[in-house]
């Protein structure tokens, strides 16, 4: 009996130690697995942090590149706007408009006719708003030529018939029917023919004013619509010719 009891106690102690080591082994396995998982998670997290840092760095570089391109584009826009303003200013300065454009056309026409630039310059410099005129205006009327006008009574002479005045206009209509008379609401072209064969023209809607220069005088004309349909009234006045003095 005592021997069996002793053997039973020894067996019990062995079983306790076995269970203890089993528990320790299991705990060791669990701890090792947890450590491995923790280590792997840490490495994964570290890699993710590195990847995100790289992406952030790339995004910063892209943003800096975009900002640089935007700044260059803005600078190009400002330069283009400045060049546009400059060329617009140059165009407005060098290309005449309105009355200056009409004067340029007349100057070019006179130069093409052989008039010396010095003579034109002298004439321009001597012109004033109120030239010395005779104040003896002569008024006449004539028919404005149209495609349906049969002809006749369509010209008048001034300065002892040294200047012949004629005009052409567009056909007027009434209730859809075309008339021989001109349409006073439309522009007409008035021609001035001198004895030397020089012809000058002006166009516009009546009333109109125009000056014709000769070697001896300046003739100032004004044109307006007459009360009689198809006619225009023209008034001419002789003024002192421009001189160098």
Q: Helix and strand succession?
A: HHHEEEEEEEEEE
Number of domains: 3
Instruction: Provide mean pLDDT, rounded.
Output: 82
Strand order of the largest sheet: 1-10-9-8
Unreliable residue runs: none
What amount of the residues lies in strands?
25-35%
- Structural class by secondary-structure content: alpha+beta
| Major sheet size, sense and barrel closure | 4 strands, antiparallel
Number of helices: 3
Radius of gyration: 53 Å
Q: Give the CA-CA distance, first to last residue.
A: 165 Å
How many E-type strands?
A: 10
Shape: rod-shaped
Kindly state the percentage of residues in helix: 40-55%
Give a structural overview.
With 245 residues, the chain is α+β, with helices and mostly antiparallel strands. The chain folds into 3 domains: 1-95; 97-126, no CATH class; 132-240. Helix content is 48%, strand content 26%.
What's a quick, concise take on this entry?
By secondary structure, the chain is α+β, with helices and mostly antiparallel strands.
Layout of secondary structure:
Blueprint: H1 2-94, H2 99-112, H3 117-126, E1 138-143, E2 156-158, E3 163-168, E4 171-174, E5 177-182, E6 188-194, E7 199-204, E8 208-213, E9 217-225, E10 231-240
Antiparallel strand pairs: 1-10, 2-3, 3-6, 4-5, 6-7, 8-9, 9-10
What characteristics describe this protein?
3 helices; 245 residues; alpha+beta; four-stranded antiparallel beta sheet; rod-shaped; 26% strand
């Amino acid at each position: 009996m005592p021997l069996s009891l002793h053997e039973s106690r020894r067996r019990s102690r062995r079983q306790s130690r076995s269970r203890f080591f089993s528990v320790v082994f299991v705990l060791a396995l669990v701890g090792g697995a947890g450590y491995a998982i923790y280590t792997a998670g840490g490495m994964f997290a570290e890699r993710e942090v590195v990847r995100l840092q790289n992406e952030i760095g790339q995004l910063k570089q892209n943003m800096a590149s975009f900002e640089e391109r935007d700044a260059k584009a803005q600078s190009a826009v400002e330069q283009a706007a400045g060049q546009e303003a400059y060329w617009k200013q140059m165009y407005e300065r060098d290309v005449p408009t309105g009355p200056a454009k009409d004067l340029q056309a007349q100057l070019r026409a006179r130069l093409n006719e052989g008039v010396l630039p010095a003579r034109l310059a002298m004439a321009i410099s001597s012109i004033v708003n109120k030239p010395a005129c005779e104040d003896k205006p002569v008024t006449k009327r004539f028919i404005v030529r149209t495609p349906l006008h049969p002809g006749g009574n369509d010209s008048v002479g001034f300065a002892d018939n040294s200047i012949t005045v004629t005009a052409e206009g567009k056909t007027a209509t009434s209730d859809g029917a075309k008339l021989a008379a001109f349409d006073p609401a439309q522009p007409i072209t008035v021609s001035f023919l001198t004895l030397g064969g020089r012809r000058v023209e002006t166009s516009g809607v009546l009333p109109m004013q125009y000056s014709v220069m000769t070697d001896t005088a300046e003739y100032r004309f004004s044109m307006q619509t007459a009360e009689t349909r198809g006619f225009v009234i023209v008034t001419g006045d002789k003024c002192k010719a421009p001189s160098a003095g």
